[in-house]
Amino acid sequence: MHERSFRILVINPGSTSTKIGVFDDERPILETTIRHDTEVLQTYKSIIDQYEFRKQTILEALDKEGINISKLSAVCGRGGLLRPIEGGTYAVNEEMLKDLRLGYSGQHASNLGGILAYEIASALNIPAFIVDPVVVDELEPIARISGFPLIERRSIFHALNQKAVARRVAKQMGKKYEEVNFIVAHMGGGITVGAHKQGRVVDVNNGLDGEGPFSPERAGTVPAGDLVSLCFSGEYYREEIMKMLVGRGGLVGYLGTNDAVKVEKMIAAGDEKAKLVYSAMAYQVAKEIGAASAVLAGRVDAIILTGGLAYGKEFVKEIADRVQWIADVIVQPGENELQALAEGALRVLRGEEEAKEYPGNVVKTTVWK
Ligand SMILES: Nc1ncnc2c1ncn2[C@@H]1O[C@H](COP(=O)(O)OP(=O)(O)O)[C@@H](O)[C@H]1O
Ligand SMILES: CCCC(=O)OP(=O)(O)O
Predict the structure, then answer these.
(1) Residue 98 lies in a domain
(2) What is the Å distance from ligand 1's center to 160 Cα?
(3) Mean pLDDT in order along the chain per 10 residues (369 residues)
(4) Is the CB of 106 under 6 A from ligand 2?
(5) Does residue 149 belong to any structural domain of this protein?
(6) ipTM score above 0.95
(7) Both 184 and 287 in a single domain?
(8) pTM of the predicted protein model
(9) Is 310 a member of any domain?
């Protein structure tokens, strides 16, 4: 019997780019990354205000490539800062749209993924999905304790790519994801380092506005007392501080750009400050990997470096030099998110899985109450 085939548009809004893909079943017929300058994104007051700009950018890119959207079977977006939920493919529903527009767990470009998917899909009368959003939460109770009873640690990370890459590497090793322990460092606009213990991400830094290494545009962990003093200095509004932590932190804060390729050119031209700051980012990633190795009690089958920054050979070498005593370092530059989104939608379209209904089983994140 001839199996039905599906054409899927996938949309991945990141903090520095919008990536889109069109897949005929598993086969990509278009994959493209549209990069956004920091100056352009900073003209928008909030993430949600970028909606029209990103939608036009996507439709123009599809038009330029000669893709007729009326032939699509479904649209699938990268999911955003929803309530903490289990992984999987979710149908976009009203409750989800409300939480994405509000930014239930915070503001990040991926909040636009589900909204853009829904808006494009509903005009065509086809289904819209999200897959493994950034709020997938598999933390063990011990990892939720921050040391400050009023604040619990949260799981906000590159769940989609971390899990897709970890599955791929496990397969290459002839094992199941559920049989191995990996440390995965996704290094993009944000940086997250996950401890994957037999198929579950039992600890990971909150890469949005929580903690961990600084990144191209985020501050990561900063000394708490000094931050509190700054907040109460009377010199800044709350929004200004938040912008300095997310969006204008990290490389943007020190060097004025979120583009590591530009930073590498600055270094090649002899810029000593750029060299120090770029090395410090590698140093902090290595430190976080060291911490994750302790979470896994040293039983680490591989360390995987992925995301856009993993294309940077010197950057990767600096990290590997510090951590390769823990386990083999496997470099998987870029990300597999577009393919993972298409595959998540396909599993549902083919009836292999049922789409989960949001919010479904919200993960219990409070240890004490
Ligand atoms: N060839 C490269 N060498 C070094 N850095 C790169 C390269 N390509 C992309 N990057 C950097 O990777 C970062 C973006 O990573 P990416 O995973 O695409 O981010 P996001 O999806 O969060 O927008 C940027 O700082 C970009 O300059
Ligand atoms: C919010 C965690 C995911 C993240 O940081 O994504 P980007 O690197 O695309 O900003």
Answers:
(1) yes
(2) 17
(3) 84 91 97 88 90 95 95 96 94 97 92 98 98 96 96 95 94 96 97 97 95 97 98 97 94 96 98 98 98 98 98 98 98 93 96 93 74
(4) no
(5) no
(6) yes
(7) yes
(8) 0.92
(9) yes
